[in-house]
Specification:
Oligomer: single chain
Strand order of the largest sheet: 4-3-9-10
Number of helices: 14
Largest sheet: 4 strands, parallel
Order of helices and strands: EEEHEHHHEEEEHEHEEEHHEHHHHHHEE
Distance between the termini: 47 Å
CATH topology of the largest domain: Rossmann fold
Structural class: alpha/beta
Number of strands: 15
Shape: globular
Length: 468
């Protein structure tokens, strides 16, 4: 297995520090609002990578932080006139609800910044003792000139960097590139006691302290959105390696931007859609398949039309799965096995995923299997249980176990049963309306159902429903 490492700018063979154990940290949400579909891409692709590592037999410890103290949270709290903790709790709850709907498996640990204040302060003290951090009247900064390798992840050089949009401007700093480790308390803001006075942690130091607390001073994989390379991940490296003198992370993985109308989707630009809203009209399987059809590191353009087209592909998978399950129920143990080698599809799937988690190619293998099996089934022959079991097991292990794109037929059946009952209620109400000569209501029910592609066919034997 090879992974493109942002740190070395090349693909490298994956060799865990302590096999079969793998430590993986993914930057999670700042809980001040519902996360948008661009954030969802990082959460889903991180989930797929983790699932594949487990598929390969690794014992993965997966950590995703929750930034529950931040300028954005405080701003939202002030706007609503509530404590910052209330905002954080509200959107943390929403985050868990939405990732569950997205079929993102729960992390092993969800560390919160507010629950790691001591670890954060200990890290800052260590940097201060080494002369890498300095205190200016209760504001503690990291001195980037004291870390010789600053810029090694992003490829940026200190002498070429200028204070920009992502760099905090502050007259107290020795250098415009120095960044906050501890922020002095302001009126009506959350604060904690510290050796430097009351205040709160800076954003970058939170991730360094939490990742090392739960995965050790050096761990295998750190992942996050492409926009986090600089300054967030660059600063994490500077803090962690500055404090320990050890390599912080072996493999850095970064997910490409989700674009809308040729611009990066972001809350600051106002061109975003919340995942919660998208899930009202599209399935989790379609969203995951949509993300998986493009390599995780490449930019991806989003539109409702593209997502709707992906729903058709999910329907194809669902119909195929129904066919396999129906045939499996009718099959007998002694039935023949066609000329078909399931191992070939496992090999191709693993070849794709072993090459830097090439999900577009892995998804193509799943659809190749569907096409090839459909050809076999078109012969109208009866095959044995083993054949259908082999096909179903492949889908369970790859399409669902790794990619998470297999619809749940049990859930689908429950929804279909309920839809059928509701439809029958409307047909019965319409019949009563006609009997009472309330033709306006009867026609409205017929026309509204037609908008949903249900055609009502009246005859002397009653009303039949046809789905267009």
């Amino acid at each position: 297995m090879v992974i493109y490492n942002t740190l070395t700018k090349k693909k490298e063979e994956f060799k865990p520090l302590n096999p079969p154990h793998v430590g993986m940290y993914v930057c999670g949400p700042t809980v001040y609002d519902y996360f948008h579909i661009g954030n969802a891409r990082s959460f889903v692709m991180g989930d797929i990578i983790r699932r594949y590592l487990i598929y390969k037999g690794y014992d993965v410890k997966y950590v995703m932080n929750l930034t529950d103290i931040d300028d954005k949270i405080i701003k939202k709290a002030n706007e609503e006139g509530v404590p910052a903790s209330e905002i954080a709790e509200r959107y943390t709850k929403a985050f868990f609800e939405d990732i569950e709907k997205l079929k993102v498996k729960k992390a092993d640990v969800y560390p919160k910044a507010t629950e790691h204040i001591q670890e954060i302060q200990d890290l800052i003290k260590k940097l201060e003792e080494k002369g890498i951090a300095y205190d200016v009247n209760g504001e503690v900064f990291y001195d980037v000139l004291k870390f010789d390798e600053y810029g090694k992840l992003s490829g940026k050089k200190i002498d070429e960097l200028e204070s920009g949009a992502r760099i905090e401007i502050n007259d107290l700093k020795k250098n415009p590139l120095d960044f906050s480790l501890w922020k002095k308390a302001k009126p009506d803001e959350p604060k904690w006691e510290s050796p430097w006075g009351e205040g709160r942690p800076g954003w970058h130091v939170e991730c360094s302290a939490m990742s090392m607390k739960h995965l050790g001073e050096t761990f295998d994989i750190h992942a996050g959105g492409h926009d986090l390379i600089f300054p967030h991940h660059e600063n994490e490296i500077a803090q962690s390696e500055g404090a320990t003198g050890k390599e912080f992370v072996k493999y850095w993985i970064h997910f490409g931007f989700l674009n809308f109308k040729n611009e990066k989707m972001s809350k600051s630009l106002g061109n975003f859609f919340t995942t919660r809203d998208i899930l009202k009209t599209h399935s989790a399987e379609a969203i995951r398949l949509f993300f998986g059809q493009t390599h995780y590191a490449s930019p991806l353009s989003f539109s409702d039309e593209l997502l709707s087209n992906t729903e058709k592909a999910v329907s194809k998978i669902k119909n195929f799965l129904k066919t396999i399950e129906e045939n499996l129920q009718k099959a007998n143990e002694e039935g023949e096995y066609p000329e078909f080698d399931i191992r070939k599809y496992y090999q191709k799937f693993e070849q794709a995923m072993d090459d830097d988690f090439n999900t577009p190619q892995a998804i193509a293998v799943v659809f190749d299997l569907i096409r090839d099996v459909n050809k076999i089934l078109s012969s109208q022959k009866s095959f044995g249980v083993k054949f259908y079991n082999d096909v179903k097991t492949f889908l369970d292990k790859t399409a669902e176990g790794v990619l998470g794109i297999l619809p749940d037929l049990k859930q689908e059946k429950g929804s279909e049963d309920l839809s059928g009952k509701l439809l029958q209620i409307l047909v019965d109400v319409r019949l009563k309306a006609k009997q009472k000569k309330d033709f306006e209501l009867a026609d409205e029910i017929r026309d509204r159902l037609k908008e949903l592609d249900f055609i009502l066919l009246d005859s002397k034997d009653g009303t039949k429903v046809r789905k267009e």
